[in-house]
Please model this.
Amino acid sequence: TTTSCDDFKPFPVATDNKCGSEFQGGSECQSQCCAAQKSGCFSDCPGAPLDQNGCRLKCLTDRGCDFDTSGVTCNDLERFPVLLGNKCGTPGQGGEKCEKQCCAAQEEFCENRPACNDACEAQCLIDRGC
Model:
């Protein structure tokens, strides 16, 4: 059991003891625990400023933490593919504030897919949360 909220280090995904659990100091230590996980997840998933392939989102959610998009603009997000449940409108894509811009980028992607008819384009957009 952790004695202080300052004692957290990133832990393996295989654990059932996510941030916020009693083993990790409970809800009062969740923010400190998630800060430690963020550091580990960003080291394990290098790349673009946010989350180019969904690795950071999955890493953090596996550890019981939210994907923090503070300080990232919607323009940073629109280039990113929609993978691992990271659909437009979700926190990993900037939430509600970026949903319209995210969907516009996805619409362009879906329209330009080779050999894709109207039904395919519609499903492509649905799959991306648009």
